[in-house]
Design goal:
Layout: H1 11-35, H2 40-61, H3 77-86, E1 91-94, E2 100-115, E3 118-130, E4 133-139, E5 141-144, H4 151-162, H5 167-173, E6 174-189, E7 202-214, E8 233-238, E9 244-253, E10 307-308
Parallel strand pairs: 2-7, 4-10
Antiparallel strand pairs: 1-2, 2-3, 2-5, 3-4, 3-9, 6-7, 8-9
Helix pairs in contact: 2-3, 4-5
């Protein structure tokens, strides 16, 4: 195969074939292990069943009806097991009051870029279907932190993975404003109506929140995220055993009306003046933009103006 080049539309198809080949390779290996009387497959299967049973018993002992998991819009017990034992992005703990809860640590980033001299914030769109029709809710960039990683490591890796960029590009063009850091705790009680929650189980989110400034937006490497013209774009999220999904992203001017929960990415302790965010990014000399490759969805229909609402933490906030 020839070396991948930026803008190669066949890349996604080839990566899909690679995943399919790897899937069949693993299946063949497992079948061979079973035919040869290998103990590895049996050991892994019994370990999974034991962990799943222990998790279910622990939840039921503390009053959580696990039979409701996987119903309506909620997640399944198997997905909770994946979070805890495979991805290691959550723990199930019992607090001093005897209440059981799912604890997740995550990093949330307000990604801001200057477009035509005005600051724009990168938001992900989530479709919401209601009786009044289809609308969109906007959420900021967020990622659950794997056990053993720092929030900085998670953020750097998530930016590279989600936007298909090399670590060097992320390091060069995404600058974390360290003095903007703040930490908070949010809670959510799952139900079958709440999208991707766990019915009857309280989730506690320990949030590391920072501002991220995008610099040198005219470079071709940032065309994949709609810059320098603030175009909307789409990424693909691979959920392992649970399939893949499309994620829609838009750049929203900071001057647009914001909800009460919107966090204005600025800090009086950051060393920058406490002024509207447009004053935080010094104007740079304008140069002719690099010709855009057809990777952003410039011709896609413009979706309805979303509600900017990063306040309530639902599971679908996360990447």
């Amino acid at each position: 195969r020839r070396q991948w080049q930026f803008g190669n539309r066949e890349d996604g198809f080839l990566r899909g074939l690679d995943k399919l080949i790897e899937c069949w390779r693993r299946i063949i290996l497992e079948l061979e292990e079973q035919e040869n009387g290998g103990h590895l497959a049996i050991l892994l299967s019994s370990q999974y069943e034991r962990e799943l049973a222990e998790l279910e018993q622990k939840l039921q002992r503390h009053g959580v009806d696990t039979s409701r998991f996987g119903t309506g819009n909620s997640k399944s017990l198997q997905e909770l097991h994946c979070n805890v034992h495979i991805e290691r992005t959550a723990t199930v703990e019992v607090n001093d009051s005897g209440q059981i809860c799912r604890v997740v640590e995550l990093v949330r980033a307000w990604i801001v870029a200057e477009v035509d001299g005005a600051p724009h914030v990168l938001m992900r769109l989530y479709p919401i279907i209601s009786k009044s029709g289809r609308n969109f809710v906007s959420k900021t960039f967020a990622k659950k932190i794997t056990h053993g990683e720092t929030w900085k490591e998670t953020l750097h890796k998530a930016l590279a993975t989600r936007f298909s960029m090399s670590p060097e590009i992320v390091e060069k063009h995404f600058k974390v404003l360290g003095n903007s850091y703040k930490q908070s705790t949010e809670e959510n009680f799952g139900s079958v109506e709440v999208r991707s929650g766990y019915p009857g189980l309280r989730s506690i989110y320990r949030v590391h929140e920072v501002d991220v400034g995008v610099v040198d937006t005219d470079v071709v490497e940032l065309a994949a995220i709609g810059l320098p013209d603030a175009l909307s774009f789409v990424t693909v999220k691979h959920d392992g055993h649970f399939g893949s999904s499309l994620q829609k992203w838009v750049w929203r001017p900071h001057s647009e009306p914001l909800s009460d929960h919107y966090h204005q990415p600025e800090s009086t302790n950051s060393g920058w003046p406490s002024v509207p965010i447009s004053g935080r990014f010094p104007p740079e000399p304008k140069i002719p933009p690099t010709p855009m490759l057809p990777v952003a969805s410039a011709a896609a229909p413009t979706p309805p103006t979303p509600t900017l609402s990063p306040g309530r933490m639902d599971e679908f906030d996360l990447l």
